[in-house]
Amino acid sequence: xKFSEILNITLINLIENKFKVILxxxxxxxxxxxxxxxxxxxxxxxxxxxxxxxxxSAGSIYINVDFTNPNIDIKKIPKLDEEKMEIVLEDSKNISxxxxxxxxxxxxxxxxxxxxxxxxxxxxxFDDINNFKIQFGEGLNEEHQNKSEKVxxxxxxxxxxxxxxxxxxxxxxxxxxxxxxxxxxxxxxxGDGIQGISPDQSIFIPYSTGYKYVLDKKYTIPQGIALVKDxxxxxxxxxxxKDSLDYIFDDEASNYMVEDAGSKIEAALASAxxxxxxxxSVATIVFIVGGIGIMNVLFxxxxxRTKEIGILKALGSSSRDILIQFxxxxxxxxxxxxxxxxxxxxLLMPLTKYLGVPVLFTIDGKIIALLFAMITGTVFGFYPAxxxxxxxxVEALSYx
Length: 400
Hints:
By secondary structure, this protein is of the alpha+beta class.
């Protein structure tokens, strides 16, 4: 029998039983849609992580108090300061810049309304190291730091929250802890932050001003950040920083931990990929269930069409022709399920956006889902097709 004839017979059977085809392929439809959504969520998660860390330099090294140490006494712990950070810079041939920041919350009065906002005191090198860019106005500089001036830069979310538009906030006066500050700039949007700081949600003031007027010296712990000259020398830079801390703090150096931005990014991406693998496992299980459904239906179909198989064999169809016919039927059913699954994934897109789930639909996801569907139909349809091909014409024609 010619392949075109086999295909024609298969299509006629599928068209005449279209509702059964749709019901049979339900598992495949759900599986295909699940795989596409899983890949989209996984890709979206990875892109979100990359976006969140986009502003970080992979050459940044963070110096933070190790709060996992149960013996730490915040009041007595020796603290970083500008002089100590200068030692870190001078002692290492791998470090190009250093900065300090302190953070906390304070009462803020903007346009007559009282609020409570995160306040971050930073040295003038902080913006450059963290790739902070000013969207409107200007940033904090060395003069502001040296004179402990009462000026501030607003994160974009803070500006939009309190002012009609972010640009309009520049030049306005606000009160922080009862003292008047001038808004000199607005940061570009940054996404998630670093060292527990969310730039979009914070108000930045000079480091010296923060220590002098806003944040409690007893409980505020300065955090350090260093930038390596060469991205390939991060490990050497970290080793240099640790050596400097050992020299500066002696036995107290164990109170501090040194981390690099690259490892944070890799850890976040690894977490996103792990979640993607778990979701893919769920989608695979759904496909297997769908494949078993196809196999069961084909077994029933073989029983129902036993006489038809006997007639085809009596007319000269070979076992190979019967095998191809039923296998083709299985693949077409699963392919229909795959295509309908792709359509379903498009219908689910608005729901994911409504729920705020980051998704990134790619052509790869759709191709993988369709291939998965076809492979599932082939694997699970083979045995019923093989059983059909082995029926003897006489037994098939006499089957009741």
